[in-house]
Design brief:
Chain lengths: 308, 307
């Protein structure tokens, strides 16, 4: 097996690794370096400025707003999405009526239908979803307000995305809408692999549905929930929040910076304001937040692994 | 995965291969009543969410057949007649046809490149021992948790200096590079599960390493390639952030970008019905493909998170 092994290894790794190093690894290293310079991005000249960018960042009110919003995205979104998804998945898989002679645990009728439908938003681009909801939220002619008028709630006509107090919640609701289905399917798969004997034993002991959920389903699903949490958090800090905030809110960034998030602020500083070095500084802060978030979830969620 | 649509006396959800015909004991009586209310309640909640998911999509389809005044005047009314002209206007005048073509080219090229390069790297990392193996593996994996936007600032200038900015092939190379972390992660795990004996036999028979890979290992890895291929296809087809930064030439726009630009420019042109037709046009092929390949898509998208 040794003959020509290293030539083969090098030959197979060179292209993928080279491409990855050039377009992913190298830019990451560069951007950390640039955060200590005064590079504008417009001219090739720059000089080292030490920690100036970081000092500026700490005094930047908009940066703090964007950090606050990003943190909200990372905490609230997974919490809401995963709770809803766990609830739906439990209903779909365990909430069914017990039939005579049937299995002790059964899903509701049409469980596969629900799973197919719930998954729809997941296959659509977040950009398309964001556009669609931007129309739905339109205060004058949008679908939501005219629905409210239709059911006689003429006095309740929020500005939605135009209201600084409401805009962020509107944006988050769209992300919840589009990601719940993914987790329902993910958790359903996890629940399907929990042995029925455990449920049978719990029922024999007289456990109700709630107890069954908290004592059996959730602990045995914990690993999946945890990795789902990290996955959702990384998305909410990065690409997904960029798309929805950039597309849906005015500015972009919302009225009075009420929806701006870190990833959007990086983009604006670099490609709108010509402050590439400062943009990478905020990017480094975003990197720190992302890694800290992942580490925190993994640590807080650490439990003894349950074998079954 | 299995679903319980049929009330067969088999615990299909349990994943236990042996069918249990009888539950060991009947559950307590009082549970029956609880079961009924719970059943109504759970169905109610599930139906409400299904409506919440489907309604915006149906609303978009309906709106794409209305004219502008109806869109703004009465968002919920049915179209007076089916305005198919919205669709033809979107396809030709609003350049949807160009956006589709660009997207197909970019995604086609990146998908093939991602699968070929990703499986090559993953195979070597999974099957060969050499100094630096773990390091390279973690280098790839690390890319999954880093915020891409941070790299995009310098990347813009890297791509620009190479003369690849605003080109289809430049975008393809970047898509491949950013798809590699997950692809390598997934396929490395997959190659590890494949039996070694077949490859060894081929090698004893005189096949070279690369021939063994292309003629024996790749066909064996087909299920894994399909899963990761679907994952990457959807990710690349729906990609918005990368083209927004690296592809600013109006003629090279991909679908997501094109639609967003279309929405922005409607402030001046005011062809909202055409825009809705464009949105639905972009939605339908993906939804249709999902409904046809439902099982594979779900497996492909959830496979990574379950590992």
């Amino acid at each position: 097996m040794q003959h020509g092994k290293y030539r083969f290894i090098v030959g197979f790794l060179a292209l993928p690794l080279g491409l990855y190093a050039l377009f992913v690894v190298w830019p990451f290293i560069q951007s950390i370096y640039y955060s200590f310079t005064d590079w504008t991005g417009l001219s090739p000249e720059f000089k080292m400025v030490g920690l100036d960018n970081y000092r500026r960042m700490l005094d930047d009110e908009i940066f703090w707003k964007s950090l606050q919003h990003s943190l909200m995205f990372a905490v609230v979104l997974p919490l809401v999405t995963i709770s809803l998804a766990l609830f739906f998945a439990f209903m779909i898989n365990v909430g069914g009526r017990r039939r005579k002679g049937g299995p002790v645990i059964s899903g509701v009728r049409g469980s596969s239908f629900y799973k197919i439908v719930y998954f729809f938003p997941q296959v659509l681009s977040i950009a398309i979803v964001a556009l669609l909801f931007a129309f739905a939220y339109n205060p004058d002619s949008g679908a939501i307000n005219s629905l409210l008028r239709g059911i006689g709630l003429d006095s309740v006509q929020p500005l939605w995305l135009g209201d600084p107090g409401l805009a962020l919640w509107c944006v988050m609701a769209v992300l919840v809408w589009s990601t719940v289905g993914f987790f329902v399917v993910l958790f359903s798969a996890g629940m399907a692999s929990i042995p029925a004997d455990l449920y049978e034993a719990a029922l024999l002991d007289g456990a109700g549905r709630a107890a069954t959920f908290f004592r059996i389903t959730l602990p045995l699903l914990w690993d999946t929930v945890q990795s789902g949490w990290v996955y959702m958090g990384i998305l909410a800090l990065g690409a997904e929040s960029f798309a929805v905030v950039q597309i849906m809110t005015t500015g972009p960034g919302g009225p009075d910076y009420s929806t701006t998030v870190m990833v959007l602020y990086v983009y604006q500083k670099a490609f709108r304001d010509g402050q590439a070095a400062y943009a990478t500084t905020i990017g480094v802060a975003l990197l720190v937040v992302t890694l800290a978030f992942a580490a925190l979830v993994m640590r807080l969620g650490r439990r003894e692994r349950l074998e079954y | 995965m299995k679903t319980t649509e049929t009330p067969a006396p088999v615990p299909a959800e349990s994943g236990v291969p042996v069918a249990k015909t009888d539950a060991p004991a009947r559950p307590p009586r009082r549970a029956d009543k609880e079961g009924t209310t719970l059943n109504v309640f759970s169905h109610g909640v599930l139906v409400i969410w299904a409506i919440l998911v489907v309604m915006p999509l149906l609303w978009a389809v309906m709106t794409s057949f209305k004219d502008d005044s109806a869109i703004f005047g009465s968002p919920w009314s049915l179209p007076d007649r089916l305005h198919f002209d919205n669709w033809s206007r979107a396809w030709t005048e609003a350049n949807m046809s160009d956006y589709f073509l660009n997207t197909v080219l970019v995604v086609g090229g990146s998908l093939i490149g991602t699968l070929v390069l990703g499986s090559m790297a993953a195979y070597v990392l999974a099957r060969f021992d050499f100094p630096g193996n773990r390091f390279i593996y973690f280098l790839f994996i690390g890319g999954m948790s880093f915020p891409i936007m941070l790299a995009l600032v310098p990347l813009f200038y890297v791509v620009n200096n190479m003369g690849l900015l605003n080109t289809i092939h430049g975008l393809i190379l970047v898509y491949i590079a950013y798809s590699l972390p997950f692809t390598v992660f997934f396929l490395t795990a997959f190659f590890r599960t494949l039996p070694t004996s077949v490859a060894e036999a081929a090698f004893v028979d005189g096949a070279s390493h690369s021939r063994t890979f292309f003629q024996i290992m790749l066909p064996m890895a087909k299920p894994g390639l399909i899963s990761v291929g679907i994952f990457n296809f959807l990710g690349q087809w729906n990609q918005y952030m990368l083209p927004t930064v690296l592809n600013t030439d109006p003629d090279k726009r991909v679908l997501t970008q094109g639609l967003v630009q279309l929405a922005v420019s409607q402030g001046y042109k005011g062809d909202w019905s055409g825009l809705f037709a464009g949105l639905v046009m972009a939605m339908l092929p993906v939804l249709a493909a999902y409904i046809v390949f439902q099982r594979q898509v779900v497996q492909g998208l959830t496979a990574g998170a379950l590992k």
